[in-house]
Amino acid sequence: MTVELFDDEMFEPDPPPAPKPPREPRRRGLNGETAKRVLVALPWIVFAIAITIAGGLVFAAAMIAIGVVCLREYLAITGDSRPQAIPAYLAVAALIVAAHFGTAFNVLLILAASFPVLFTFGARDNQRKGVTTSLGVTLLGIFWIGIPLAHAVLLRDLPSHGGALLVDVLVGTFVADTAAYATGRMFGSHKIAPSISPNKTIEGLIGGFLIGTMGFWFAGLYQDWLTGVDALIIGAAVAAFAPVGDLFESMLKRDLGKKDTGALFGPHGGILDRLDAVLFTVVVGYYLAVWLVY
């Protein structure tokens, strides 16, 4: 008689693990999101062209209104730093008024005058705690929003061709931004700054630069006062600075823990999310236009 000390089942090998399902390949190409981005932008493109054609006080007043909305979003996302709202609104409006009725020198005077005004508001007893951060955040808002909007007025008010040049800059910016998104979706694999904006890719940057440059060139194709070389130079600068403005805003939002600056455009964010590139390109567009065209 034999005694089985161990059950044979104890020595049976474990069944092999179930195979993992194959990973789905990353989907590339365009989807409805690109079309939505374009459709959301269309009414604002029409609005921008309309106020640019109107020019004068209409355009300056529109810039003040846009500045107020932009500042409202900015003050909301930086509220923990207690920015000085009243001086910020006054400074941005004054910068735009100075650009329309004066010159770039008057814009500089307003910018300098904002410092003592900020000191006056910051020196109040109930405002002195954390005043350094408060004043710094306020000045950032004035520079980031007020200076570009003042340059938009300066560009529009250039004699003879200001309106056309501003439209060209807006077209180049919009085309560069849309092309960067589209080419990044289709071909993007190499990240530019994943810690700031994870979706930005080198492929999208190159596509946006090339197509944005040509977008500006095509916009000025029938403007006989703008040579092809000048159009390519300005267009290349606009296409190059558009993603810089986008990355700058992304850096601020990442630091502040915000996904969007507002909800004016619903799921597409706030007005600063839509104008982040323009706030950079309109400045470089103005100075290159003065240098090359005038």
Mean pLDDT, to the nearest integer, reads 88
Gap from first CA to last CA:
112 Å
Numbering strands along the chain, what is their spatial order in the largest sheet? 1-2
Helix content: 55-70%
Strand content: under 5%
Task: Assign the structural class, choosing from mainly alpha, mainly beta, alpha/beta, alpha+beta, or little secondary structure.
Answer: mainly alpha
Can you tell me the number of structural domains?
2
Task: Supply the number of helical segments.
Answer: 10
Catalogue the unreliable spans: 1-11, 23-27
Number of strand elements = 2
Task: Give the topology string: H per helix, E per strand.
Answer: HHHHHHEEHHHH
The backbone outline, from C-alpha atoms, is globular
Largest sheet: 2 strands, antiparallel
Q: State Rg.
A: 26 Å
What does this structure look like?
It is a single chain. The chain has 294 residues and is mostly helical. It folds into two domains: 54-157, no CATH class; 161-294, no CATH class. It is 68% helix and 3% strand. The protein has ten helices and two strands. The protein has helices at 32-54, 56-77, 85-101, 104-122, 131-156, 162-187, 202-219, 228-256, 271-275, 278-292; strands spanning 191-193, 197-201. Strands 1-2 form a two-stranded antiparallel sheet. Strand 1 (191-193) and strand 2 form a beta hairpin. Helix 4 runs antiparallel to helix 5 (131-156). Residues 1-11 and 23-27 have low confidence and may be disordered.
